[in-house]
Amino acid sequence: MTDANIDSARLKSQLAWEDPRSNRGYVQIGRERVTQSSDANEIAKLRAKAPDFKESMEIGRDWDETWKNQWPQESDAPRFKQTMLDFYQTCHDLHVHVMRAIALGLDLEETYFDHKIDEQCHNLRLLSYPPIRTDLLRQDGQARAGAHSDYGTLTLLFQDSVGGLEVQNPHTMEYQAASPIPGSIVVNAGDLLARWSNDVLRSTLHRVVAPPARKVSETEGITPARQSMAFFCNPNFSTEISCLPTCSGPGKEPKYAPVTTEQYIVGRLQATYI
After folding, report:
1. Residues 195-211, buried b or exposed e (16+ Cβ, 10 A)?
2. What is the pLDDT of residues 60-86, one digit of tens each?
3. What would the 3-class secondary structure string for the chain be?
4. Does pLDDT of 141 surpass 80?
5. Which domains can be identified in the chain, with CATH numbers?
6. Considering the entire predicted model, what is its pTM?
7. Rounded to the nearest 10 degrees, how much is the dihedral formed by the CA atoms of 263, 267, 33, 202?
8. In whole angstroms, what is the distance from residue 49 CA to residue 31 CA?
9. 149: closest CA among 189, 193, 184, 177?
10. How big is the CA angle at 259 (ends 255 and 261), to the nearest 5 degrees?
11. 3 or 20: which leads in pLDDT
């Protein structure tokens, strides 16, 4: 390991993710195992057998009085903090517009969700998928990120040109590539939007697999590095997520028990991380 790599690892370790209620800081490779399971023991077994091969930096609203973001020193990452805060606000503003469109599509008042998402309880995740040998990805259950749905209302995904994101077709159950399109944003529906809409809008099951590898020997290859940014849009933590009035009726009973945003998301995060 070079001196630069050692310094980078040291700086990252000082910003380490600590608590699912905070959900802020640096997550090292192997600490997270995303899955559809909510059973902590099952997830622990999956993580030990095939952890997700990625690292990330988690950023929340910066004015929170209880949970603080973990920022690098300005001298270590010039303008990083302000750039991320500006981007966070831009993504929130886009979230508001998309949720207004969804409200209209569900026969609700256009501003129905405004007061339910205005506290900006979101999570900005900067993701890095290092190069990895293809023989490791061929191991049972291994992936850059396992199949899962996201937890909140929407996810705004910004990806580079490498590729690897796949989404499941809900009708055929087969995965198909969500190939990068320059200048576009991938928008995924999340679990809480599915619960709110009684599955009128289903959460999107997706995964990240290895793109075509560069051959390094007759039997082995290595995948390229991949970077992406995911903005996980969430309702206010105190918001009760229960079936919307336009999404139930005779013969269409609510499928999910009411739950607050905080109860659902913190519960999922507690099981997902070490």
Report:
1. bbbbebbebbbbbbbbb
2. 999 998 999 999 999 999 999 999 999
3. CCHHHHHHHHHHHCCECCCCCCCCEEECCCCECCCCCCCHHHHHHHHHHCCCCCEEEEECCCCCCCCCCCCCCCCCCCCHHHHHHHHHHHHHHHHHHHHHHHHHHCCCCCCCCHHHHCCCCCEEEEEEECCCEHHHHCCCCCCCEEEECCCCCEEEEEECCCCCEEEECCCCCCEEECCCCCCCCEEEECHHHHHHCCCCCCCCCEEECCCCCEECCCCCEECCCEEEEEEEECCCCCCEECCCCCCCECCECCCCCCEEHHHHHHHHHHHHEC
4. no
5. 26-269 (2.60.120.330)
6. 0.84
7. -40
8. 12
9. 189
10. 125
11. 20
Instruction: Write the single-letter amino acid at 162.
Output: V
